[in-house]
Amino acid sequence: MSVNRDVDPPPGKRPRTEDPDSDSDAGTTEPQTELKKHETLWFDDGNVILVASRILAFKVYRGVLSRCSGVFRDLLSVKLEGEPMEGCRVVHLPDNPSELGYLLSALFLRSSFIVTQCGFEELAAILRLSTKYSIPGLRQESLEFLNYCFPANATMHEFTSLKRRNLLKAPGAAIGLVNLALELKLDAPIGNLALYECCTMPIRDLCDGYKRSDGTTETLDSKTMGRCMRGRDILVSTDFRRANQWMNVTRPTVLCTPATCPGLNISVVRRSPKAQSLFQSGHHAPQERTAYMDILQPYCRVCMSILMNERGAGRQTMLSRVVQGAVFPKTW
Ligand SMILES: [Zn+2]
């Protein structure tokens, strides 16, 4: 879907947000360019057209925007003299078109927005723009979900892993989350746990950055990358090894009934070459979960429960240190 854009000035001439003076150059002799209409956020009876980054247009309802957001209310109350489009007032916004689309979907297609099913890109867009346009309900909803996925309490971390994995399933999304946490000054647990997620990524992927669906790429700035690398050193040299100590556990007194269980007279690391290589690598990447389940598979329920408890305790100690900023100090 597209529409002729004949009232828009050349790029760079208009301020980031439309104001009464910004239409003085409307109707210039610039060649006409195509402006796309959003496929679903184009209501025929809408009464205002928002244009994101001069690329994508949304025809929505002024009253709803004004009611949800004081910033939109102020923006729309300014009298503009620009040329209307399809009889509607046109307001240019500097926002990323995809991001504005996510925000407007959450506002105007409310039933299709379920925060707990959001991918990172959608959640980030809604949190970023609900903060910018001061939309308290959406901001709180998205922030609460982020806090749920990245809890300050390390014991909760295991329980929320499924939601967290789902949220960050796009490759490199943790990089986007670190940047979002810095940009919006989110509470420390989120930023620290996002840096931790970055540390579980292969270095090459970390350097390649987070590729968003619009083709743009986000990377960590050099200072944050340095902080991440330093934290990674601390994790590999100290915390990952500590978290892997469950592989060294022995319990000679435990009686196992199934004859097939290897028992805990000898530690997992001494019994299994696979465990040994995992332990020696000091690695703690997400794929480790699959690897350790494989290692634990021959053990009986009693032994497995002992080992899992030990593993849980080790992970909690590590995550507590991450949350408290011991692994990623702001200055180092
Ligand atoms: Zn056993």
Descriptive account of the structure:
The structure is a single chain. This protein has helices at residues 62-68, 70-77, 97-108, 120-132, 136-149, 154-157, 161-167, 173-183, 188-199, 203-208, 222-243, 268-271, 273-281, 288-296, 301-323; strands at residues 2-5, 33-42, 48-52, 56-60, 89-93, 210-211, 217-218. With 332 residues, the chain is α/β, with parallel strands linked by helices. The chain has 3 domains: 2-96, no CATH class; 128-220, no CATH class; 238-320, no CATH class. The strands form 2 sheets. It has a 5-stranded mixed beta sheet. Strand 6 and strand 7 (217-218) form a beta hairpin. Helix 1 packs across helix 2 and helix 4 crosses helix 5. The chain is elongated, with a radius of gyration of 26 Å. The relative contact order is 0.08. The structure holds zinc ion. Zinc ion (ZN) is lined by residues 256, 261, 263, 299-300, 302-303. Residues 46-150 form the BTB domain. This is BTB domain-containing protein. It comes from Jaapia argillacea MUCL 33604. It holds the Pfam family BTB.
Main-sheet strand order equals 1-2-4-3-5
Count of separate structural domains:
3
Residue stretches low in confidence (pLDDT < 50, at least 5 long) are 1-32
Class by alpha and beta content: alpha/beta
Helix count from the secondary structure assignment: 15
Instruction: Report the bound ligands by name, code or SMILES.
Output: zinc ion
Number of strands: 7
Strand fraction equals: 5-15%
Order of helices and strands: EEEEHHEHHHHHHHHEEHHHHH
Largest sheet: 5 strands, mixed
Through-space gap between termini:
52 Å
Mean pLDDT: 85
Q: Output the radius of gyration.
A: 26 Å
Estimate the helix proportion, in percent: 40-55%
The coarse overall form would be elongated
